[in-house]
Amino acid sequence: MQQHPACLVPLRKSRCVLSEGAMTRSRDSAPHLRGFALYCLLVCVAAQSSYAAGGEASPAAHPLVELVRAAIENQIKDDQQPRLFAWKERKNRGQRSQIQTIVDTPNGPLSRVTLIDNKPLNPQQRAEEDERVRRMCDPEQMSHRLKSRQEDDERTRPLLAVIPDAFDFTYIGSSQAQNGHKFIRLRFAARPSFEPPTRESAVFTGLQGEMVVDETASRLVSIEGTLFKDVTFGWGILGKLYKGGHFLVEQSEISPSHWETTHTFVKMEGKALMFKPIHIDENESSWDYQSVPPMSVAQAMDFLARSSQSQQSALRAP
Question: Can you list the positions of beta strands (E) in 104-206?
């Protein structure tokens, strides 16, 4: 398991968190970049409100602050709804790729890898995957992952208040989506006068990029950002993220008024606790979201097994 300092991390149910250890995830956990997407969403919401106020950022204007607060609350309400989904996810690691099916349960998500490099698993890979799934279903492990996810959610909320003060926003242009919604493209940059109130929010001081907002729905369509300088945490003792780190997050409305992440790319380098290297190179795509009823662990595993068989049968079809 790779350890990371307080840094940017992965949109579903508090999917993108900025918090110490929030990027700490096992390769077995699914999905592990969700915290990062929520962070990007919150930045976007602040930008959307700035544009609505007249096309230029007006951080001191009380009506703007209320607009931002209302938009953030709207997103949080969506994230906190007790929805359960199953979906497919492709993870790219260098030249290798894998596709897995993931299903939510009341005790947290479970997953099974169905394809590696677009091919069915060979006997050795199946045996390894069976063992990984067995460990993943351990009640203690599931409880630990669920608790970690809930703690990520709690860490996110204190950061919301600083979003309107952390960035300056510039209007770039607008377009109309196929569904008739108005898309607004904005540029965001760290505000020079911003003084991070917490260790976690220090990462805001080194970010700049562009985002697209669905103004009609008041939701993030995409956000792309880069660290334009090194960002340190705890005077560099806890960690550092190096200049040049890059991320992209895209999301879509998958059911009425409910949005989910469809693509996440994160590439960052740094160090933790002065010596441990940080290397984040994640490229993930998600699709085929389907609402599912509450399932027990046994029912979820049966669901994943049937999904895997169906996918492999489709590959063998003429």
Answer: 110-116, 119-120, 167-176, 182-190
